[in-house]
Hints:
alpha/beta
Amino acid sequence: MMHKAGFVNIIGNPNVGKSTLMNALVGEKLSIITPKAQTTRHRILGIVNHEEYQIVFSDTPGIIKPAYELQASMMDFVKSALDDADILIYMVEVGETAQKNEAFFNKIINSKIPVILLLNKIDKSTQEEVAEKIAYWREKVPNSFVYIISALEKFNVDTVFYKIIELLPEGPPYYPKDQLTDKPERFFVNEKIREKILMHYKKEIPYSVEVETESFIEEETIVRIRSVIMVERETQKGIIIGHKGTAIKRVGAEARKDLERFFMKKVFIELYVKVNKDWRSDRNQLKRFGYDQS
């Protein structure tokens, strides 16, 4: 029996709904989702296994023009997603026309691999607007298969999934058939804590934060976790902790609930805050946190 396997890489501008789509396609919440731009910092793989195929989905950071070293490292993940894709999913919003990075857009329209262009968030538009945008993007990216979807409502996601299966190249699986992702448990702990920080803190605070899990001990009925929240300045440390520790306690409590669902057992979590000055511009620190691919 013929077996298919391939990398399906999802790219697009920030806040277009890439992580929501990835989670819908994989059927698991692997990528964190918040209304803030640049929520996704790493390239995250989600693996869908079937006896006849293996699809390796890849969620990447949004396409931006980098302003500092961390953002440059994030864009390296996007570049690698363009390089190793068997199928490329390019997501846009219905109202979107401007390109954040013209060089990347030119790579997409000149791609030699299948491109699926998805018009997301169609639930916020009229039928006339949608028809107009389908025509616009078909002309703009003539090498693509264009679909309208609502990743949040899972509208038309199944149609896209079946098209992906049809376009997959023949080949053996890349990963063991019981594997869901390429990331270790600690990565998802860090991301879940960071998601809560993105949701509850304002302005620059969420973007100045990195999370590192120092201890992850899994016992039969409980997972014991100790994680450190890194900030760039002393003033940020006080904001993260909050008055009498109320802010950090809320982050810990909400992350614990989500992690208990993820690991399907009780979770005990300890959070600490440390100042790690200007880590976003320090290549050695970025390498330590898994951003620098060089």
